[in-house]
Design goal:
It is found in: Membrane; Mitochondrion membrane. It is a multi-pass membrane protein. GO terms for molecular function: NADH dehydrogenase (ubiquinone) activity. The chain crosses the membrane at residues 6-25, 56-78, 84-104. The chain is mainly α and 111 residues long. The chain has one domain (1-26, 53-104). It is 67% helix and 0% strand. It is built from 4 helices and no strands. It has helices at residues 2-25, 32-35, 54-79, 84-103. The longest helix has 26 residues, at 54-79.
């Protein structure tokens, strides 16, 4: 038990030391270009809050979620026959989520 505490303490001290060394040695450039918002190399026009449509972020989030669910489907399908029920439950849950996104109009590609 004492060895575990010593290892944990050593790890925390090492983590803190690396963090402090990184902070001290890093280059801190606070120029105008460094602290301004980056918008694909173009100068910002108007308010920065209005320059990005949240619709693209929602579509990306849905893609990532459905992509991960497809990976989970493959893992369930190749495991064994007894996991077929869990596969069906997850499939109906995903279809329900997809239906809700369609119902609330989140799948429309109009900006």
């Amino acid at each position: 038990m004492l060895v575990l505490i010593m290892v944990l303490l050593f790890t925390l001290v090492l983590l803190l030391a690396f963090y402090v060394i990184n902070f001290v040695l890093s280059i801190k450039d606070m120029g105008k270009n460094k602290i301004s918002a980056f918008e694909c190399g173009f100068g910002s026009v108007g308010k920065i809050q209005n320059s990005f449509s949240i619709h693209f972020f929602i579509m990306m989030l849905m893609f990532v979620i459905f992509d991960l669910e497809i990976v989970m489907f493959l893992g369930i399908l190749v495991s064994d026959l007894s996991s077929y029920v869990s596969f069906l439950l997850m499939f109906f849950f995903i279809l329900g989520g997809f239906y809700m996104e369609w119902w609330y109009g989140k799948l429309v590609w109009v900006i």
